[in-house]
Amino acid sequence: MRVIRVAGLCLAGVLVSFSIIASSAQAAPALGQCVKDPDKGKFEDKGCTKRATQPKQAKFEFESLKEELKYESLTEETKLTAIIKGQPLELECKSSKDNGEFLVGGNRDKDIVIFKGCELKPFGVTCQTATRANGEIVSDLLNSNFLGAGEKGNGGLKAPAAGEIWLQYEPVANHPFAEWECAGVKGELTGSISGKIPSKYIGTPLKVGKKTNKGDKPSFTAVFEATAGEQALKVTTEGETVAANFDGTSDINLFNKGEDFEP
After folding, report:
1. What pLDDT is recorded for position 120?
2. CA Rg, the chain, in Å?
3. What average pLDDT does this structure show over 154-158?
4. CA-CA distance, 215 to 207, in Å (whole number)?
5. Is residue 194 part of a domain?
6. What is the DSSP string of 80-124?
7. Domain containing 23: what range?
8. How confident is the model at residue 186, as a pLDDT?
9. C-alpha to C-alpha distance for 16 and 67, rounded to whole angstroms
10. Is the peptide bond before 122 cis (omega within 30 degrees of 0)?
11. In total, how many domains does the chain have?
12. Model pTM?
């Protein structure tokens, strides 16, 4: 069993402790609360990490998220790479911001990612989504969810190993991940991607705040690269559709009260 504990979050004036938990009883990792329940509890500790072996030890129970919980995700440089017509191309963005919310139940969330400072290399031309500022690419509405050990991503290529938790992103049904144009040449990204949550954030209390300021440490991170998680992305441009790789690290910050996101 692996747990990501989120401690010290205040909702409706009540101090509670949240966790992402994955166990035989919780098939997929889910965000929720470990509560004291001596009648129906299955765990012996307040973090819901130790399953009770005797009835008298069963004092706590895990309850999945009952209210939407907002978060903000920030990255610095990201790179989307592919081979188009035999030539390596790289779509590089200087930063991204993702405002979203975990939904009731705690395993899924919805969000929109805004990439800024995007440039197609080696040509040095800016890329942007229609109606957006130069160098700004906006994703479609995305769904994301946690994946636990043995649970394959939507690409069907890989699954987390024992003790691992991944965070998967995919667009809503029948929509692309994102669309853009670089000097008149259109591009489209489809498919899904999963990033690995580093082990140092698993089983340790995580920071929660109201806003994210530059230099603040994140609640936790998700690492997206060929050797971490699953890459099941495709780029369509210049009449070709090819596999693509995305590299970047998302700093994910949970907060009590946040602004509604607007792309």
Report:
1. 94
2. 20
3. 88
4. 14
5. yes
6. EEEEETTEEEEEEESEEEEEEEEPTTSSEEEEEEEEES-EEETTT
7. 2-64
8. 95
9. 13
10. yes
11. 2
12. 0.81
